[in-house]
Structure formats: structure tokens, C-alpha cells
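Let's practice the habit of predicting before peeking. Look at the sequence and jot down your guess about where helices and strands might fall. Then scroll down.
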Amino acid sequence: MFEQQVVVTETIETSMDDGLFTSLIDVLTKELSIYTELKEFLIQEIHKSTTLPSVNQINENNILKENIILKSRILEEVRINILRKIARKFDVDESTVKLMSLINHAKEDKKKIIYKIHNDILNMAKDVIILNNENKQKIDVYNNNINVLLDLLSSVIGQSKGYHNDGKIDKILNNGRLLHAKG
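Done guessing? Here is the structure:
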């Protein structure tokens, strides 16, 4: 009878562990889809950057990006909570929980799935970082061009030395004197 209880307890614990890792796989899969959505959105935004968008389009794009980022933050919190539950289950310190340290407690089939999703997420994150850097470089070039244009316009519009606002030449106070500056 005691052996039956041990078998039943082990079966329940195994299914509970399996359920936690299944939940983890679901969350990781959703995170991957969110990062894929973000990457596709950034690619579309890059292609649209050749045209001048309206303020409403810019606001809509920012709202969509904020929603995608918010979804990823929520999923990150859910993932962390699941990892903490798994850590508690296997008596691992919750403060230093990492996905790769807990994956050893999963069954082989779950391990393979988690490794694959983890690698896919890492690759997707690298792609998003590359796209962000490309966008940042474009923005830096645009900002530099705007600053040069503003400097040019201020020099053209601004009052130059020796001229009135109407374009007439100022009278020189030292009219007739020779001026000499050393250097």
C-alpha cells in the first residue's frame, strides 16, 4: 500500500512538473510570436520611412509599438513567475533563476522544445537589435541634416554684420581710417 502511494505521488509530481514546463513552453512560444511581430513591424516601418508620414500615422505606429512592447513585458513577467514556481519545486534559489539552469529538470522532449524556442528568441532579438541600430543610424543622419539646414537658414535669414534688415549697407564709423590688425 505504501508503494502505491509513492507511485501515485511521483505520478502527480511528474505531471505537475510537466504542466509547469508545458506552461513555460507556451509562454516562450508567445514571446517568440511577439518578437516576430515586432521584427515585421520594424521592417515595414523601414520600408515606409522613404515617404513622409503624417503625425497621425506616426502616433498610430508608436501606439502599435508600445502595445507590442507591453505584451512582451507582460509575457516576461509570466515567464519569470513560472520559472520561480519551477525553482521552488526543485529547491533552487529563486533570486538567481535562469531558464537554462532549470531546463535540466525537464524531460528530454520538453528540453529540446525549450532549447529550440530559446535559440529562436535569441536570434529574433539579435535581428531586432540590428534593425534598431539601422533605424538609429538613419535618425542620426536625418538629425544631422536638419541641424545643417537650420544653420544655413539662420545664416541666410539672420542679420549679417554690416547690413540693415532692408539689405542696405551700414555706415562704417571709422570711415576713411586705415585699420590694421596684427595676427
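How did you do? The mean pLDDT is 80.
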